[in-house]
Amino acid sequence: MTEAPNADPQELAKFSQLAHRWWDPDSEFKPLHQINPLRLEWIDRHARLQGKRVLDVGCGGGILADSMARKGAQVLGIDLATKALRVAQLHAMEAQTPGIEYREVAVETLAAEQPESFDVVTCMEMLEHVPDPSSVVRAAATLAKPGGWVFFSTINRNPKAFLFAIVGAEYVLKLLPRGTHEYAKFIRPSELARWCREAGLDLADTRGMEYNPLTQRYWLSGDTSVNYLLACRKP
């Protein structure tokens, strides 16, 4: 396939190297396994996934995509990290997950092919890994049907987020491999909200995600100072 402009080869390589560990709940992807029930319930509460056509952008090894399919959605997961996609496909075959398929394609390319085709579009933990996140937001908005839902999650950009998401998560607690995140690529909620409005989306809900290292518990809250989720609707 032709190389998509809105992808960082180093980021793709980083996640491809870890691909075989994606479904190990005690691996580098343990935080994704731990937060997935929270994300899934929040998305389902807004969008009612049963019977919906769903696109998961930057699906990686398929943790969220697989769980949305098990909620009764017809899910397409897309990513540009080839090895991670192969892992997702293999897991879907082994687990016999119904209603799921995967494709190696850029979201901008798919938006040109299939505008207004999906009831729900999710893009979780990806925007902070691409050169032009606003392009992903525009493509996601294009792919959603009128009245459809678009969900994002990413990391705020401020000193607290640097301390918690990089120093704490990567160096002190070792929840993530060092170098997983780059502070300059973090996104303030005001920036993401502006990109959504510019793409024609209406902001419906914003939630923060917090973590207690002593209890190893995650929960959703009103504190968006570090990790946060944003729900939008297409008019």
UniProtKB/TrEMBL annotation:
S-adenosyl-L-methionine binds at R39, G58, D79, M124. Keywords: Methyltransferase, S-adenosyl-L-methionine, Transferase, Ubiquinone biosynthesis. Pathway: Cofactor biosynthesis; ubiquinone biosynthesis. One of its GO terms (molecular function) is 3-demethylubiquinol 3-O-methyltransferase activity. It comes from the Bacteria. Its EC number is 2.1.1.222, 2.1.1.64. SUPFAM superfamilies: S-adenosyl-L-methionine-dependent methyltransferases. InterPro entries: SAM-dependent_MTases_sf, UbiG_MeTrfase. Pfam families: Methyltransf_23. It is an enzyme of class 2 (transferase). It catalyses: a 3-demethylubiquinol + S-adenosyl-L-methionine = a ubiquinol + S-adenosyl-L-homocysteine + H(+); a 3-(all-trans-polyprenyl)benzene-1,2-diol + S-adenosyl-L-methionine = a 2-methoxy-6-(all-trans-polyprenyl)phenol + S-adenosyl-L-homocysteine + H(+). Transmembrane segments: none annotated. Gene3D superfamilies: Vaccinia Virus protein VP39. One of its GO terms (biological process) is methylation. Belongs to the methyltransferase superfamily. UbiG/COQ3 family. O-methyltransferase that catalyzes the 2 O-methylation steps in the ubiquinone biosynthetic pathway. This is Ubiquinone biosynthesis O-methyltransferase. It comes from Caldimonas thermodepolymerans. The lineage of its organism: Bacteria, Pseudomonadati, Pseudomonadota, Betaproteobacteria, Burkholderiales.
